[in-house]
Amino acid sequence: MKIFLLTALITSCIASAQSSKTTTEIMPAAYRTNVYVPMLKGKRVAIFANHTATIGNVHLVDTLLKLGIKIIVAFGPEHGFRGTANAGEKVDTYIDSITRIPVISLYGKKRKPSPEDLKNVDVMLFDIQDVGTRFYTYISSLQEYMEAAFENSKPLMILDRPNPNSFYVDGPVLDTAYKSFVGMNPIPIVYGMTMGEYAFMVAGEKWLSKKANDKYAYYQTTKNSKDTAFHFQLIKCGNYTHKSKYVLPIKPSPNLPDMASIYWYGSNCFFEGTVLSEGRGTDHPFCFIGHPSLPSTLFAFTPVSRNGATTPKLKDTLCYGVNLFGTNEQVLRMVGNKVQLKYLLEAYRLFPDKESFFIKVKKGNPNLSLFNKLAGNNELMQQIKDGKTEEEIRASWQAKLDAFKKIRKKYLQYEDFE
Length: 418
Description:
By secondary structure, this protein is of the alpha/beta class. It has 2 domains: 7-235, Uncharacterised protein PF07075, DUF1343 (Rossmann fold); 259-387, no CATH class. 28% of the residues lie in helices and 13% in strands. The chain has 12 helices and 13 strands. The chain has helices at 33-40, 60-66, 115-118, 138-151, 195-204, 210-222, 259-268, 328-335, 342-350, 370-375, 379-385, 390-409; strands at 7-11, 44-49, 54-55, 58-59, 70-76, 94-95, 102-105, 123-127, 156-159, 231-235, 288-291, 299-301, 319-323. The strands form 3 sheets. Strands 1-10-9-8-2-5-7-6 form an 8-stranded mixed β-sheet, with helices on both faces. Strands 11-13-12 form a 3-stranded antiparallel β-sheet, with no helix packed on it. A two-stranded antiparallel sheet has the order 3-4. Helix 4 (138-151) links the parallel strand 8 (123-127) and strand 9 (156-159). It is globular, with a radius of gyration of 22 Å.
């Protein structure tokens, strides 16, 4: 029987990329075509990507096709392959109008490629920009793509990209009783890893499906074999460390249009589990927070229908709350290096009808509310209701957070911020 190996190969050489980037500028792995394109030559490639998979202003798929790489199927995550779909919107399988490549959505009921999807594939490629928060669903998509690769004995290559929020680690660690697509593993809200590092952790900690974990374990016992048909390979970024403040060249999804929204996302996505507007349908999602019931002396804004948020919460309704938008430097100072809770706690204090503050589950287990899924536990909601201070809440996270940090260290591929 042919032996398949999962070899965690890390391409560490920082070769000069076929791009205009300088030798000191942060270089996403996709730019390093001279490192990985030779390994794709003559192969039938499947790619999991979206609009963030670019080299300069050109989509990675277009670049690879011009370089003679044969891409036979593409997979798209939440928001679609071109990144234009609303949050949570169902996207059907279709033919991409630009490349004529079939695109299969992996968001919704179908979340991983089937054996049929992969039967003619020689190599699976992954390149998506992450923002470094547990509830940003691209890391869940990565995990299920990994499972499909391992389960079907297909080589997997990850093109790494910098994490714009990897300069700190904070937030409650997910209790797996609250596992969902917005949080699959026991990690904090801001976990401080690139997608490639996270992939190594998911595999190393056996967080994959049983079949995928068994494949990985089998590799561990047969890694000295000469048969290396199965590879799990990471192409690293150039000139990047976890101290870097990487500014994304393209918005990663419709409701993260700028760095202010990206920096606030880890703190203010909690509001998605409340009746308050989190700013979708405005110019500054996750920076504008409010509700009509809050004091009218506060900052005013009105969510409206727009691309990527056609039916935002409190659409066409005047809301009052806070405006946390600012320059990158201003927002970095406000966020600091922790998940901020003060605006959530203050909103709850000011909200007149506290019984309706959190969105209730229509049916089923009330503990599995959206807020609790985002928090990763049912403790935070109760702490807010009990009037706990931010310091008391943060103290309740610390033991599990410290334990996660030790696990994280094992899988880092870049210099850490500490």
